[in-house]
């Protein structure tokens, strides 16, 4: 069982990135899939999630209107489209799959740096 993030990198303020979270060993559509981030010296925070079995989503206030979480069930992958990026979005972004006690999986993270 694994989730693996990709798509991070260096981008200028105002730019865009799309992060991918590829799930293996389980069916991601049966899990609540979330993106978290952790900036240096700060606690990990929830960025966005999409519920299991559906398309309902929720976002942190700081990213609402700029970020979009989505699923591709055929690819067993979840995405985070990030637009209008700001320096304060700089962080390591983590994918999480959750279905309950003992069914809680984290990726290794992907670095996003927003800087001119």
Report what the structure shows.
This protein has strands at 2-6, 9-11, 17-24, 32-38, 45-50, 57-59, 67-72, 77-82, 91-100, 103-106, 110-114. With 116 residues, the chain is mainly beta.
Quick synopsis:
The chain is mainly beta and 116 residues long. 0% of the residues lie in helices and 54% in strands. The protein has strands spanning 2-6, 9-11, 17-24, 32-38, 45-50, 57-59, 67-72, 77-82, 91-100, 103-106, 110-114.
Topology:
Blueprint (H helix, E strand, L loop, with lengths): L1 E5 L2 E3 L5 E8 L7 E7 L6 E6 L6 E3 L7 E6 L4 E6 L8 E10 L2 E4 L3 E5 L2
Parallel strand pairs: 2-11
Antiparallel strand pairs: 1-3, 3-8, 4-5, 4-9, 5-6, 7-8, 9-10, 9-11
H/I helix tally = 0
Q: What fraction, in percent, of the residue positions are helical? A: under 10%
Q: What Rg do the Cα atoms give?
A: 13 Å
Q: H/E element string?
A: EEEEEEEEEEE
Shape: globular
Q: Strand share of the residues?
A: over 45%
Average residue-wise pLDDT: 96
Largest sheet, strands/sense/barrel: 7 strands, mixed
Low-confidence stretches: none
Oligomer: single chain
> Helix- and strand-based class?
mainly beta
Number of strands: 11
Distance between the termini: 38 Å
Keyword list:
116 residues; mainly beta; four-stranded antiparallel β-sheet; 11 strands
């Amino acid at each position: 069982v694994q989730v693996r993030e990709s798509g991070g990198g260096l981008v200028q303020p105002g730019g865009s990135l799309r992060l991918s979270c590829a799930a293996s060993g389980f069916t991601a559509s049966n899990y609540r899939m979330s993106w978290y981030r952790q900036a240096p010296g700060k606690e990990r925070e929830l960025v966005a999630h999409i519920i299991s079995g559906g398309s309902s989503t929720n976002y942190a206030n700081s990213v609402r209107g700029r970020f979009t979480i989505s699923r591709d069930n055929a690819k067993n992958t979840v995405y985070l489209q990030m637009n209008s990026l700001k320096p304060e979005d700089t962080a390591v972004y983590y994918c999480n799959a959750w279905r309950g006690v003992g069914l809680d999986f984290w990726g290794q993270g992907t670095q996003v740096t927003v800087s001119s």
